[in-house]
Automatic annotation (TrEMBL):
PANTHER family attached to this UniProt entry: CALCINEURIN-LIKE PHOSPHOESTERASE DOMAIN-CONTAINING PROTEIN, METALLOPHOSPHOESTERASE
Top-rank taxon: Bacteria
InterPro entries (UniProt xref): Calcineurin-like_PHP, Metallo-depent_PP-like, UPF0046_metallophosphoest
GO MF: hydrolase activity
Protein name: Icc-related predicted phosphoesterase
Any one GO BP annotation for this protein: cell wall modification
Domain Calcineurin-like phosphoesterase, first and last residues per copy: 1-226
Pfam annotation, one family: Metallophos
Length: 255
């Protein structure tokens, strides 16, 4: 059995269309849309609406952890648009989702990232796409468990969840052979982004499940340039499958 696994697609429809080649199925761990691109401020929804210069300034404020100033700047820009800001966001997100789901290979097993808008996915799914969140699926004789979304942070991305909500989804999985999440378990080495120079937030519930159940693999993304891309916890191989927008190639899982 051969699966290709991607995470943090962030608009890379061109590479996504090729990501399933040679695989029995694709797994996507979320973050499909590109709202703001820290590597190229001219890309993403924010730049489309407000220009690359404003996007670069917004990124610089957030990188410097001047969050109040970033929010004030963002609020002023949104207020300058005609109509409800949510309409502008959803129109651009919908356009990205149309392109990305059209490119998404079939069959594919998907869960949400922290920047995704789950309520909009159903309009774009194709027959071979199966979305799982706090749910399991048997693939090639192994039991895969999926948990989407992220936890609350100062960045306030759209699909951040309260700890108890996220933890309940982890608890619902039970015994699994492969754990698939968007965010990593709460291990500092797996959470540190060497380019952003910050720790992202990971899940204590996910770490506890790994220690207790010892699945073969724990697969995740979210941290784009991790200090440790993989680590073993007991018998479990924990793997950051990579920043797909940057790499353009999937992680390969075979058994």
């Amino acid at each position: 059995m051969r699966l290709h696994v991607v995470s943090d697609v962030h608009g890379r429809a061109d590479a996504l269309a090729r990501a399933g080649e040679g695989a029995d199925a694709l797994i996507c761990l979320g973050d499909l849309i590109l709202f703001v691109d820290y590597d190229d401020p001219a890309q993403g929804i924010f730049a489309e609406l407000f220009g690359a210069d404003n996007a670069a300034r917004f990124i610089a404020l957030r990188t410097a952890k001047r969050f109040d100033e970033a929010r004030a700047m963002s609020a002023a820009l949104w207020a300058s648009l005609d109509g409800d800001p949510r309409e502008h966001i959803e129109r651009n997100v919908r356009r990205q989702y149309e392109t990305l789901f059209a490119a998404m290979p079939e069959p594919a097993y998907l869960t949400y990232g922290n920047v995704d808008l789950p309520r909009m996915w159903a309009d774009h799914l194709r027959p071979g796409h199966r979305v799982l969140d706090g749910e399991t699926a048997e693939i090639g004789g192994l039991r895969f468990g999926f948990v989407g979304g992220g936890l609350r942070t100062v960045y306030r991305t759209p699909n951040e969840l309260d700890d108890d909500v996220f933890d309940a989804k982890v608890a619902a999985l039970g015994e699994v052979d492969v754990l698939c999440t968007h965010i990593p378990p709460a291990v500092p080495q797996l959470l540190y982004d060497t380019v952003a120079r910050r720790h992202e937030r990971g899940s204590e519930a996910t770490l506890e499940l790994i220690r207790r159940v010892q699945p073969r693999y724990a697969l995740f993304g979210h941290v784009h340039q991790p200090l440790y891309p993989r680590m073993r916890i007991g018998r479990t191989e924990c793997v950051n499958v990579g920043h797909f927008r940057g790499k353009g190639v999937p992680y390969i899982l075979e058994w």
